[in-house]
Design a protein that fits this description.
The structure is a single chain. The protein is α+β, with helices and mostly antiparallel strands. The protein has one domain (about 1-160): PH-domain like (Roll). It is about 30% helix and about 35% strand. It has helices at about 10-30, 35-50, 145-155; strands at about 1-5, 55-60, 65-70, 75, 80-85, 95-105, 105-115, 115-125, 130-135, 140. A six-stranded mixed β-sheet has the order 5-9-10-8-7-6. The longest helix has 20 residues, at about 10-30. The N and C termini lie close together (about 10 Å).
């Protein structure tokens, strides 16, 4: 079963603002001074990387939860999952990025929550979050558009 992942408004604003900045800045360049190109040389690879690794959707198969991205799907083995639950953003407590992306094409990477500790995020939006707790204490946060439907489907044993 496939569940789509749409960007939230904040992520759309961050993504379009940064992309717009790069485009406007590029068109306004009159000189090819390396120092003037520095912002583009820093931001453009980040923009490309976050675009390629943006969570596009989540698929539940018999063996895995697959996180679809433009490159390199990420697999969560279903037989190692301890629990799956819908989680509202304010239920996370205070959160901070330890290594990740905070809004450009989504929210991805390693985060820490005052209530749940270390976790890895594959979010396209901060609402509709689903917390996946693993038997090995790892935690993943994903954001299918239909969070409740995702949790119900994950709890089924067979997909036809």
């Amino acid at each position: 079963m496939y569940f789509k992942a749409s960007l939230d408004l904040a992520s759309k604003i961050i993504t379009w603002s940064l992309t717009g900045f790069i485009l406007v800045y590029s068109f306004l360049l009159k000189d090819i001074n390396p120092l003037i190109l520095l912002p583009i040389l820093i931001i453009l690879p980040i923009l490309i990387f976050t675009y390629l690794y943006q969570p596009l959707g989540y698929e539940i198969t018999i063996d895995y939860i697959e996180i679809h991205r433009r490159v390199n799907k990420f697999y969560i083995p279903r037989n190692e999952i301890e629990s799956v639950m819908v989680l509202h953003h304010n239920e996370l407590g205070r959160t901070w990025r330890t290594m990740g992306n905070g809004g450009l094409f989504g929210y991805t990477g390693y985060y820490n929550s005052s209530k749940f500790g270390n976790m890895r995020w594959f979010l396209s939006r901060r609402d509709n979050a689903v917390l996946i707790r693993m038997k090995n204490e790892k935690k993943y946060l994903i954001s299918p558009d239909d969070a409740k439907g995702f949790v119900e489907a994950q709890q089924q044993d067979y997909f036809g």
